[in-house]
Each structure stands twice: as C-alpha cells, then as structure tokens.
Amino acid sequence: MTVDTEQIYYKLFINGKWQETEIDSYIDVINPATNKSIGKVTQGKAKEAALAADAAVEAFKTWSKTPARERANLLWKLYDKVFENKEELAKVITKESGKPIKQARMEVLNGAEYIRWNAEEARRIYGTIMEAADPKKRLQLKKEAVGPVAAITPWNFPFSMVTRKLSPALAAGCTVVLKPAEDTPISAIKFFELAEQVGFPKGVMNLVIGEPEPIGDTWLSDKRIRKITFTGSTAIGKMLYQKAAEQVKRVSMELGGHAPIIVFDDCNLDQAVQQIARSKFNNSGQTCISPNRIYVHESIIDQFTKKFELFVKRLKVGNGLKDETDIGPVINRAGLDKVESHVKDALDKGATFDVGGKKYEKDSCENGFFYSPTVLKNVNESMKIANEETFGPVAPIFSFSSDEEVIYKANNTDYGLAAYIFTTNLSRSHVVSEALNYGMVGVNDTVLAQVEGAFGGVKESGVGSEGGPETLADFLDTKFISTII
Ligand code: ADP
C-alpha cells in the first residue's frame, strides 16, 4: 500500500469536541479503487467509548425532555446542510467505499430523506387513552425515548446507514454513540461536522472510530446504554444480540441476506432484465438486499440470460469518481478473495460463464480491488454461491419449473431479508409474495430502500425495521400510567 504525501487527519467527536486519543495510533482509510490511503483517523479504544457513553448519558437528561418540535427543527436543519453539501458527501463516499459517484449521489439523497422523514415523524409521537373498567380510574399509554443508544454501522452504505440509525433515535429523544465501519469512517465524520454546524447540543451525538470489539463491548456492558442498533453480518449481529441480552437492552438488527429473485414466464422480460441487473450490480453487488439467486422459469431462461448478458456486457467498470462508471471495486482484498473463491467453487462444480469471470488487472483498472461483472450459468444448490452471500458483482442464474418448487427453494435459507418476483399475473403476485418468508418483497420492483417503506428482515436477517410509519417505534418505550382520581 502506498500513502499519499498529503494526509488528512481526522478525529473523534465526543461531548461536542473533536478529540484525539492519547496513544499515537490511527486507521488508514484506503480508497479501494487505487489501494491508496485517503486519510488517517485517530483510533479510539474502550476509554474513548466510555467517554462517549458518559456524554450521551448526561445529554439524554435534557435531550429527551427537549420538545419534539425543537428536535425536529434541528433535524430539518441537518437535512438542509446535507443537501447543501451533497456533492462533497458523494465524493467522500466514492473515495472511501469505491462505489460509482452516481450511486453515491443517490445514497446521499436517500440518506437525507431518512433525516427528513424522521424529523416529520418526531412531531407525531402519540400516546393513547383507554377507558378503564373502573370509572374512578384514568388509564394512559405514554411513549418515552428508550435512553442513550449505541449504533454500529457497516461500510457498504457509509452515509445512509448512519442517517437511517441516528435520525430516528434523535427524533425519538435518544442520544447516540456511533461506531461506523473502520473501512469507511470519513462519511460519518463529514456527517458529524454538519451536525456540529447545525448546533446539536453537546453529547447528543458522539462518534468513536476504532477497534470494533473494545468499543462495542464497552457500550454493550454499560447498563446506561439502553439500546443497540446494528447493521452488518449475521455472525457479528448474533454476537452483539447475545451481549445485549445480559442487560435486556432493546435491539434493532439489520443483518445478512440471500435474496432470491423469481422470474416467472409471464413477466415483462425487458423490465425484469433491467431491474435485476441494476439491483444485482448496485455497489458492485455489495448490498444486503442484492439478488443472490436469480430463479428463471425454464421456458424463458435462454431468452432471459441472453438479454441479461447483453445488459451486463455494457456496464462500465472503473474508478467510481468517473461519471460514466457503473461498477467500482469491491471494498478490499478480503472482499475480492471471497468473490473469487465463490466463482471458483461454482466453476469447479460445473457452472459456466460467457460474461465476466475475472479480476481486473492492474494496468486496465488502476491498482484497486476490481472484479468484472459476471453472469454464471448452470449453477445448482450445491455451490457456495447458492447459500452464502457473495457480496460481489456475480449473478448466478438458476432454472425452475413450478411455483411450488421455486417457493420452496426461495425459502430454504436461514435468511429472510428481501425477495423479489417478476410477474404480470395479479393473483400469482399475491400468492407468491405471501408465501415468501421475507421481511420485504419487491413485485416487479427491486428498489426497497424507500423511506416511506419499512426496511428490515425476519429470521436470521434481523429484528426491527427502518423508515415507514413505525420508524420511531424501535426507539420508544411504552409506559402505562394508571391513576385513581
Ligand atoms: P461486514 O461483513 O459487512 O464487514 P461486519 O458485521 O463485520 O460486517 O461489520 C459491521 C460493523 O460491525 C462494522 O462497523 C464493524 O466494525 C462492526 N463490528 C465487527 N465486529 C464487531 C465486534 N466484535 N463488536 C462490535 N462491533 C463489531
């Protein structure tokens, strides 16, 4: 790895101040398109995590009592700031995650929409009054902020994952300690710079970047932190869930997925091809709702595959900062190794390809972690790619012959995040979407991260959801008050 001479040095944000750690240790943030460092971040440990928790606990006393209208006003201002700085934010996202700039711009707008939605919902925290059996009693349910919240976010959406977690927490009256992924901390840092300009009271939002385990353990073992909201792998999510159970903390978990897409013989083929390709190769296949298993009815599989391959061949691979780029690198060496190993395993077991199937060489694509968009054919359930998240630009196409068979196969996984179907048959769209054991189902639609909808999974893909009309519920406790008058 080479290091740029002009290094930018970033700090942590604790109790309203940008802070360095005492020890001289830092994280190098690498641009995956070039394998060069784009900045250094001072590395927080348990001590900084504890200081952040102290600040969040202290600030909770006043923030939770701050009128919802004031909390909403600050979130509105933050939304405006994000909007004003959208191009700079998009560039940061592209540089540290590698994703194409047009997708990074979408991420900023999508992330901003979560801030706006939650600002709107902050004004609509309602309680309930019930009629008691005893006429001398008055019964009410009141909603209260759960307490200081720990948020841990992944690298694939380094900006919108932060806004999706922090804005509902802040809207509900919770204070926050955040640990973003160590691969992509600068988007979170830029977001905190904007929040500072807006004037959130000190301690309400705290940012600690560094070694995951000591930071996570500090927050999970702190009784005063009442909730953890996490997006990441199922393996880490389970571990955090277990640790949270020690103190019966509230949890929201958005974990891994292995999304099936079912393409029925009555679908609009061109629509299906475009939607599936866009979704599959979005962020180089590194999204938790990425179509991992494309099941196509045997009567149209050749037709579908030809059109799909044609579409994929036209995708431009390159540095995400170029406007024309459709596919950037994957996040790092380990990510690239995983993609290669899944493809190799599939080929060893009989899969074939006519499009993609290779790493990009240094000369043709800078020095980063590129993999060409790949379409795998003749795949079957014995392959790793049929069962594990590949998190790369590889689309395996499976054949099926009946609705029952494909529903069984689609559900035959421990994951339950997103599933998709393509059909023009109204009755089939209802029957199949009801039969799929998933938190989200797209019918002729692969765009599920919509703020008005509820993003979340079932089974081992998680608990809770983000966005939608219940967006604040995960950050509110219900208190029952019974009064004898
Ligand atoms: P991915 O496979 O997408 O990198 P991870 O689950 O490994 O997903 O990471 C998601 C987030 O969880 C990142 O911010 C990462 O630093 C954090 N994380 C990983 N291990 C731990 C841990 N032991 N304790 C707390 N956070 C962790």
UniProtKB/TrEMBL annotation:
Q: Which GO molecular-function terms appear in the entry?
A: succinate-semialdehyde dehydrogenase (NAD+) activity
- Gene3D superfamilies noted in UniProt: Aldehyde Dehydrogenase, Chain A, domain 1, Aldehyde Dehydrogenase, Chain A, domain 2
Looking at the record, the residues that make up the Aldehyde dehydrogenase domain are 18-481
Q: Could you tell me the superkingdom of the organism this chain comes from?
A: Bacteria
Keyword terms of this UniProt record = Oxidoreductase
Among Pfam families, the record links this protein to: Aldedh
Gene Ontology BP terms = gamma-aminobutyric acid catabolic process
| InterPro entries in the record | Ald_DH/histidinol_DH, Ald_DH_C, Ald_DH_N, Aldehyde_DH_dom, Aldehyde_DH_Superfamily
The record's family statement is:
Belongs to the aldehyde dehydrogenase family.
- Name-wise, this protein is Succinate semialdehyde dehydrogenase
